[in-house]
Amino acid sequence: MSTIIVVGATQGTGREVAAAYARRGSQVVITGRSQERASAVARELVAATDGAVTGLALDLTRPATIAAALESVQQVDRLVLVGMVRDSNSVRDYDVEAATTLATTKIVGYTAVTASLASRMSVGASVLLFGGMAKDLPYPGSTTLTAVNSALQGLVRTLSVELAPVRVNSLHPWVIEDSPVCAGNEQITEAARKMTLTGHLASMNDIVDACVFLLENPIANGIDLKLNGGIA
Question: Under DSSP, is residue 182 helix (H, G, I), strand (E, B) or coil?
């Protein structure tokens, strides 16, 4: 039985990826910032999928605690790093603390998780980092998010070299229509839809399909995949 770790899986895309792998028969370990929340979501996923899911507490904003949080994990075949903090932070009114938290979470935190688990990764293991289209399409308040998501491309490149033959990729989705953040917010979704060439926005299922491709295809390595339907 393969083992997949999904960091940041108590809601949204991370939760859906965890559910998909539970249905596939994998041993799934999910993380959340609190043990109570992670355990509760793990129980919900077990009930929904009849799979094997456990929950661990892990806080990406505190990288020094990550190795201890992952001590119980014995083997890693797939690692998905989805967890993030939200930050609307303009350079004209810059919140240094918020910016530091975001950068720590997605650069230092993601790297610390990968480093902590590197010795337990199987030969055919793969790692998937989550970024976003703010790297290419900055907007007022995205100063740090744009920089951090752009930096993930460099992280993918160096990790794919250092961890070889373990594969490392990243996924950069545009607006996800039925995500917890966007569902029911027509102002966001309609504006985003008009920017695409297809006239369609991704669903959570679309994103999960892309995750499975990057995680499972043995030739997919060093890819920074943009899922945006084409931007006009």
Answer: coil
Asked if residue 170 lies in contact with residue 156, where contact means CB atoms within 8 angstroms, the answer is: yes
Q: Report pLDDT digits (tens) over 138-166.
A: 888 899 999 999 999 999 999 999 999 99
The residue type of 163 is L
**89 in helix, strand or coil?**
strand
| Contacts for 191 with CB less than 8 Å, ≥ 6 apart | none
Query: Residue 79 forms beta bridges with which residues?
Result: 5, 127
Residue corresponding to tokens 């998010």: 145
What is the pLDDT, as a whole number, of residue 232? 65
* Torsion angle of C-alpha atoms 52, 130, 87, 177, degrees rounded to 10: -80
Instruction: Say if CB 102 and CB 84 are below 8 A apart.
Output: yes
Query: Token match 């935190």: residue?
Result: 109
Q: What separation in angstroms does the CA of 192 have from each of 74, 83, 176? A: 42, 23, 10
CA atoms of 56 and 39, how far apart (whole Å): 7
How many whole angstroms separate alpha carbon 76 and alpha carbon 57?
Answer: 17
* pTM: predicted TM-score of the whole model, two decimal places: 0.95
- 48-77 in b/e form (b: 16+ CB < 10 A) is ebebbbbbbebbbeebeebeebbeebeebb
Q: Which two tokens stand for residue 116?
A: 């902590």
Residue 21 contacts residue 187 (beta carbons within 8 Å): no
